[in-house]
Amino acid sequence: MGVTLLRGRDFTDHDSADKPVVCIINETIARSFFPGIDPLGKRVRLGDGTPDEANNPFYSIVGIARDVRGWALETKPIPEVYLPLEQEYRKDMTFVVRADVVSASSLERAIRSEMKSLDPALPVANYRTMERLVANAVARPRFSAFLFGLFAASALLLTVVGLYGVVAYAASQRTREIGVRIALGASQRNILALVIRQGMLPALAGLIIGIAGAFALTRLLAAQLYEVSPADPATFGFVIAVLLLATFAACWLPACRATKIDPMMALRYE
């Protein structure tokens, strides 16, 4: 399974049914039940302490494994104990097969063939690849992320189109002014800066207000996120950069058109 062993030892062939029972605990158990104490060598009894569990054996802790999300990706790791198969045999088990790089179909055929050779009457049910398990686990949050992304892209497109229209209209209203500036010696760089600044300043004010509102509403999105902080600096930085680039692109075309205004035509403009 690739679960990292942090301390202690793994199970060996010596952990058989006639030997003292042992177990490996995860980090959550070590932090919760052994704060400031080395759990290795300590003994634990599994269960919730009910009377019918009084005869349960004590397991010696021989290792500490890293926490894994074995139940759901969106939930925090829970206390887990690993037991050797020969000391804790169970009839209802899930077998995990680790193989080299092969196709899923060929691996399934090989598993079914091997199981049939061991016991022809034993059915192999609910065969799933790890990729399919992970895909099913993230299907709902991935769909939510797709919807959020689609709405965000639509909002960004409408914003760019609307900002372009506003800047283009504002530039057309200042045609005579721009023509006079050009006639008096204003360079193309000056006209570009004038028009772009006119469009960027309101957009920057709106961006600041939007960032403040986004920070205020981050708690509403916390349940939809996985391994990402609602106030992740990288995410906010990327969004700010995209919005600034989109705003600049929306202002660039009207600014370029303004630099091509003929001063003589502009002075006659009504």
Describe this protein's structure.
The protein is of the alpha+beta class. It has 3 domains: 1-93, no CATH class; 95-137, no CATH class; 138-267, no CATH class. The protein is 51% helix and 8% strand. It has helices spanning 27-33, 104-118, 130-137, 139-173, 175-183, 188-216, 218-221, 233-259, 263-267; strands at 5-8, 22-26, 43-45, 58-65, 81-82. α4 runs antiparallel to α6 (188-216), α4 runs parallel beside α8 and α6 packs antiparallel against α8 (233-259). The longest helix is centred in the middle third of the chain and has 35 residues, at 139-173. The model has no long low-confidence stretch (mean pLDDT 82).
Order of helices and strands: EEHEEEHHHHHHHH
Quaternary state reads single chain
Reported for the largest beta sheet, the result is:
5 strands, mixed
**What percentage of the residues does DSSP assign to strands (E)?**
5-15%
Compute the number of structural domains: 3
Low-confidence stretches at least 5 residues in length (pLDDT < 50)?
Answer: none
Q: Rounded to an integer, what's the Rg over CA atoms?
A: 33 Å
N-to-C span:
76 Å
What best-fitting shape do the alpha-carbon axes yield? elongated
Count of runs of 4 or more consecutive helical residues: 9
Determine the structural class based on helices, strands and strand pairing: alpha+beta
What percent of the residues sit in helical stretches (DSSP H or I)? 40-55%
Q: What integer is the average pLDDT?
A: 82
DSSP strand tally: 5
